[in-house]
Amino acid sequence: MPVAPMLVLPSLQPGIPLAVASTxxxxxxxxLCRFLIASGAVREDDLPDGEADPxxxxxxxxxxxxxxxxxxxxxxxxxxxxxxxxxxGQHPGMRSGPPAPYAQLDVYWCEYREAEWPVGRxxxxxxxxxxxxxxxxxxxxxxxxxxxxxxxxxDVADDVASYVxxxxxxxxxAALDMMCEDSDDAEREAMREEMVTRRMLDDAYPxxxxxxLVRPDKSAGGRRRTPAWRPCSLRRAARTLTDPxxxxxxxxxxxxxxxxxxxxFHPDIEGEYIGFGAVLxxxxxxxxxxxxxxxxxxxxxxxxCDRMGxxxxxxxxxxxxxxxxxxMGQRFEAxxxxxxxxxxxxHGH
Length: 349
Prior knowledge:
Largest sheet: 3 strands, antiparallel
Strand content: 5-15%
Protein name: PRTRC system protein F
Organism: Hydrogenophaga pseudoflava (Pseudomonas carboxydoflava)
Oligomer: single chain
Pfam family, one: alpha-hel2
Helix content: 40-55%
Distance between the termini: 72 Å
InterPro entries: PRTRC_protein-F
Structural class: mainly alpha
Strand order of the largest sheet: 1-2-7
Order of helices and strands: HHEEHHEHHHHHHEEHEEHH
Number of helices: 13
């Protein structure tokens, strides 16, 4: 039986581009590349070979430059990205008519691939080595991280559980009242078995992990003064602990606590906020991950924000981008310290 000849699919010569950009767009992209090179954010030899899209090439170059400033990381995977906007703050390609000229650079950062890191045993071991040391390290992580690299910690899990499951209450009873209004006790308990409950959280974390340490108000009278968990001295811990691994954790926490970090680049949040850089569970696979996953599922049903920070850079001022880089210096240092602490806590027990 004769064999039918195989059809040869047409192909483009290597010199023919796969995409065609308008002259005005190509000119705008070239101007953006010149702006980034002039600002010092991108070196010509940083631009990846073979990337046909100038915007993607610049984004990859900026991301690589920033990651060099942060240094090698063990746990975190920050992603820095850019968008170009017109003078109205909109993407030029989304407006009808001819593309508007580029006017602003939207720089933002987020975690590329958040993961679970169990830290409970190490924090408890630190508390045993020195009273409140583990609690103090945890507080430094969440207090400094909230402006730079927000972490999903037990106190956040506690708040999210109240919001997602319990109608804003401290436990599940009010939610069960609503769902089981016409049900008997057996049906109510069956529903409880399927829920995240207050008992689950109380069993998962010690109370100090769900509360912020506070310094007592010295102006309050003796009887009016409320009990408080006092932070321990990280400086003393870094000097006196005998275990070198724990001593290094205390030193890194001390260094992180001393950084001057403010809420300068807070993202414009619309909808649920899910811009967390890591999930710090107590034990691997505990209720923390379930709460976090349910928050993500809820967020993706509507508007959400997964950015950790953002800044708008005017494209008529190359110095503005360099000034932003300088202001980010301590944040880059904080990201490296947060990563080092998570790695040490997760692998130290």
